[in-house]
Design brief:
Keywords: Membrane, Transmembrane, Transmembrane helix. The chain is an alpha/beta fold and 329 residues long. The protein has helices spanning 16-24, 44-55, 71-81, 100-107, 140-148, 163-166, 186-196, 218-221, 226-239, 242-247, 249-269, 274-286, 289-298, 300-311, 313-328, and strands at 3-9, 31-37, 60-64, 86-89, 95-96, 112-123, 126-130, 136-139, 159-162, 200-212. Helix 7 (186-196) runs parallel beside helix 9, helix 11 packs antiparallel against helix 12 and helix 14 (300-311) crosses helix 15 (313-328).
Length: 329
């Protein structure tokens, strides 16, 4: 088995069939699909089994977790079951586009141990294509620092990893793939650490994933906590090589600022109640000017957003709401 596609799923009865079908429709015989149902109360598992049986019987494994633990634990559970030499994560409400698996198989060879692709973003208002701002081949350490600077996307679903990067077969444990009890920044933290282990990473602009944005998406549905941010940052610090960690202090400060801005953005999107206002002001208080100066050199856009939040949470919230309406809805 060359490639394992792991799909964590919760309340995905209406979308899991399309996700599974998009993998199987590419026609590769060396691919397995592992759907991990995170104790969904609906018919997610049955829909996944039906999608597999209708295309290629026996190629889809559905694992139902007895209790819900979130996407981090579902991805870890799927990784432990995977037999492939290349692992891919796909969200249950997104789809792979034709050519994704062939591109992955052709790219993850030799020194290249991870690949990042572009995406097609589908919203209620239409579609557009996007890609990471930094393209080409680079070392894993360079890729990790690029993630901290928002130059490479933080998502797991637009990437593929050689199995060895996940350390599933050695003395390490799959429990460390993504930080547990973190439901917004777990993907960024996990991806950053995995990329840092690669000898070489190839970043492409080919749009080979369709990311589907809807009102019920987790990104829009809840405000992450500052504790989740701190747990994600702790996962990064624990997972990075000591030498890279020492060389990345400015980038880690940038990452802290970025996560804080994202929390504030989610609070702004949640409305104008007392809880949202309190979170905005708490995030504002977390931003130190020395961190903003470090961020300015690494990621000017993030620094500008953070300075605006520091100076006027109200104006920051208004701009965040406007940007989301025009970009994602």
């Amino acid at each position: 088995m060359r490639i394992s596609v792991i799909i964590p799923a919760f309340r995905a009865e209406g979308s899991i069939g399309a996700a599974v079908g998009s993998v199987l429709a590419q026609g590769r015989e060396d691919v397995e699909v592992i759907v991990v149902d995170d104790a969904s109360p609906d018919g997610t598992a049955e829909a996944a089994r039906a999608a597999g049986a209708s295309v290629l019987p026996g190629r889809v494994r559905v694992e139902v977790l007895p209790t819900g633990g979130g996407a981090s634990r579902a991805r870890t559970a799927g990784a432990r079951l995977a037999r492939g030499q290349i692992l891919v994560f796909l969200d249950a409400d997104d789809v792979q586009l034709p050519g994704f698996l062939d591109t992955v198989a052709a790219t993850v060879t030799g020194e290249v141990e991870a690949v990042v692709v572009g995406r097609r973003v589908r919203t209620e208002g239409g579609t557009r294509t996007e890609a990471s701002r930094r393209l080409g081949r680079m070392s894993g350490e360079e890729a990790a620092r690029a993630v901290m600077r928002e130059q490479i996307t933080p998502f797991p679903w637009d990437k593929a990893f050689r199995r060895s990067l996940l350390r599933l077969d050695g003395p390490g444990t799959a429990e460390d793939l993504f930080p547990a009890d973190v439901h917004r920044f777990e993907d960024l933290a996990g991806v950053l650490v995995l990329l840092s282990r690669a000898r070489q990473v190839q970043v492409l602009d080919l749009p080979l994933i369709e990311y589907r944005v809807h009102a019920g998406s987790l990104t829009w549905g809840r405000v992450p906590t500052r504790r989740e941010r701190d747990l994600a940052l702790a996962h990064v610090r624990h997972g990075l090589d000591a030498e890279l960690l020492a060389a990345s202090r400015r980038d880690l400060a940038t990452l802290h600022v970025l996560m804080t801005v994202l929390i504030a953005q989610s609070a702004a999107l949640a409305g104008e109640g007392e809880e949202s206002s309190a979170m905005l002001h708490a995030c504002r208080a977390d931003l130190r000017w020395r961190h903003l100066l470090a961020t300015l050199a690494a990621s000017p856009v993030t620094a500008a957003a953070a300075v605006l939040l520091r100076l006027s949470p109200r104006v920051f919230a208004s701009i965040a709401q406007w940007r989301t309406r025009t970009r994602y809805r």
